[in-house]
Amino acid sequence: MIEKRETTIKSGEKVSDDLLSLLIESNLNLFKEHGKSKNGGMTTEDVIEECKLFYFAGQETTNVLLNWTIVLLSMNPSWQERAREEVRQVFGESFSPSYIHAPHTVITLQPQHGTPIILHRF
Predict the structure, then answer these.
(1) Is pLDDT at 116 greater than 80 in this prediction?
(2) Is residue 44 over pLDDT 60?
(3) Which InterPro entries does this UniProt record tie to the protein (predicted)?
(4) Do 9 and 47 form a contact (C-beta atoms < 8 A)?
(5) SS3 118
């Protein structure tokens, strides 16, 4: 996958602006400037490790964010009600989540007190 993306970038074709493409493009620019010296960029293994690092760091950040969201919502009933109202505005009064809504629903929060809260994306 990395070698295919490198070949695409070297040929001048347009690639997506994802993390892998940005790392490879930056790495190729360093190779052009410094050659294959020690200061000349990352190996393929380094690129793989950087992608893993971003993935797991993002996962950890998301976990912490969701935990704090649940804690703060459980401590602030007025925030819970505002979140519920927003869900009602987007999905309607008789909204009952199911797998049909999965593309729009990120997570359902079950606070200790009160009704479940459905966080969604647009």
Answers:
(1) no
(2) yes
(3) Cyt_P450 (IPR001128), Cyt_P450_E_grp-I (IPR002401), Cyt_P450_sf (IPR036396), Cytochrome_P450_Monooxygen (IPR050665)
(4) no
(5) strand
**CA angle at 17 for the pair 12 and 23, rounded to the nearest 5°:** 80
Q: What is the pLDDT of residues 98-110, one digit of tens each?
A: 666 556 555 556 5
- C-alpha dihedral sign at 6, 7, 10, 13: negative
Please check whether residue 67 is in contact with residue 104, taking contact to mean a CB–CB distance below 8 angstroms. Answer: no
Q: Is the dihedral of CA 13, 16, 20, 21 positive or negative?
A: positive
pLDDT, tens only, 66-91: 888 889 889 998 988 888 888 788 77
φ and ψ at 39, to 5 degrees? -90, 10
∠ Cα 72 110 65 (to 5°): 40
Q: Are 52 and 46 in contact (CB under 8 A)?
A: no
> What number of other Cβ atoms are within 10 A of residue 87's Cβ?
20
CA-nearest of 104, 114, 46 to 83 is 114
**What does the alpha-carbon distance between residue 99 and residue 110 come to, in Å, rounded to a whole number?**
17
* Phi, psi (deg, nearest 5) at residue 85: -65, -40
